[in-house]
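Sample pair:
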Amino acid sequence: MRKHSPIGDEEMLSLPDCRFLNEKGGCERLSFSRCTGEKCTFFSPGKSGTDLSGWKSRLSLLSEEEQSRIAKKYYGGKRPWKDGGGDVV
């Protein structure tokens, strides 16, 4: 059985391709029940808000101390953001 959004399918298709657009035509970022479109200050074209691309490069830019702390706390001492992901600290 196909789910229908609370707004019509045609209206849903007319909304912009925003990463924060939810399946009901609202906003995941703001408490708007309806998308305000491209004029919204949070409008962000592209993939879902859970897009995690770039996390490896962001972690690699941190100091060695910070990378070590994060590796120990969250990754069992490994650094999966480094090539090979096996830098045990």
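The helical segments are 9-14, 55-60, 64-74.
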